[in-house]
Amino acid sequence: MLGWVITCHGELAQEMLDSLECRFGPLTQCRAVNFRQGLSTNMLSRMICDALHETDSGEGVVFLTDISGAAPYRAASLMSHKHEHCEVISGVDATLLEAMYPLRESYSSADFRNQIVVAGAPGVSSLWHQQQKNPPFVLLHDLYEK
């Protein structure tokens, strides 16, 4: 089963997790990380790292964030590059997560990423989709050496 780390501004992450638990009961491999006012980005990164390790069973983890490019999204993006089968999704809300919840058990992280982006369009995106629009920077020197 895919682990979920919901990380958003204010109390939104915990509110989304509470909403999911009201509907589905206690959730395994699911954590909320709130980015409260006054919390440093360093502490946010540490909290996200802890949540990643708590939710990862080896099948992958999906970071679910509220705003693309904001601190929770950036911290999750940096963390995702260090671990296999991690996806970062932005633009989520409680209704979308309720609809996507049943797919946690049967989808790979990449399949889940693609499905949630389609289901939440046009406001939902992923780090992977953003990287396809803006491929990584390559130095011309590196191109000529090959």
Question: If you had to describe this structure to a student in words, what would you say it looks like?
Answer:
The chain has helices at residues 12-24, 41-55, 71-80, 94-100, 109-120, 127-133, 140-145, and strands at 3-9, 30-35, 61-65, 86-90, 125-126. The chain has a five-stranded mixed sheet with strand order 2-1-3-4-5, with helices on both faces. It contains seven helices and five strands, in the order βαβαβαβααβαα. The mean pLDDT is 93. The chain is 48% helix and 17% strand. Helix 2 crosses helix 3. With 146 residues, it is α/β, with parallel strands linked by helices. Keywords: Cytoplasm, Kinase, Phosphotransferase system, Sugar transport, Transferase, Transport. It comes from Phytobacter ursingii. Residues 1-124 form the PTS EIIA type-4 domain.
